[in-house]
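Worked Example 4.2. Consider the chain below.
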Amino acid sequence: MSLESKVICVQELAAGEPVGYGARFITDRPMRVGVVAMGYADGYPRHAPTGTPVWVAGTLSRLIGRVSMDMLCIDLTDVPGAGVGSPVEFWGRNVLASDVAAAAGTIPYQIFCNLRRVPLTWQG
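Applying the procedure from the previous section yields the following structure tokens:
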């Protein structure tokens, strides 16, 4: 099983800029931040913290800030080839669901059962 989406916006932020609800994450250096169409209403764990792994444009990166209802932010600073439309894997071949679940303080079964709103496709 995999959970995927795409980058829908890219922002260049200076050091000291807040990211996400409640300004939970503050940039500590100039950063490229990608906004991704995925949130807790889709079933992604709301409590996944900054640092939760994501795979974007063929590179391991991380979630930053809080997960919102429909979007979340990822660090694109070290992924120069990523931009609007770049694929993002939240779990699947490159990111283990167990790693995402552990970061969010839960188990893989729970994150699988929470999926909603995302199109489900079978690839055999």
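The mean pLDDT is 94. DSSP finds two helices and eight strands in the chain. Compare this with Example 4.1 before moving on.
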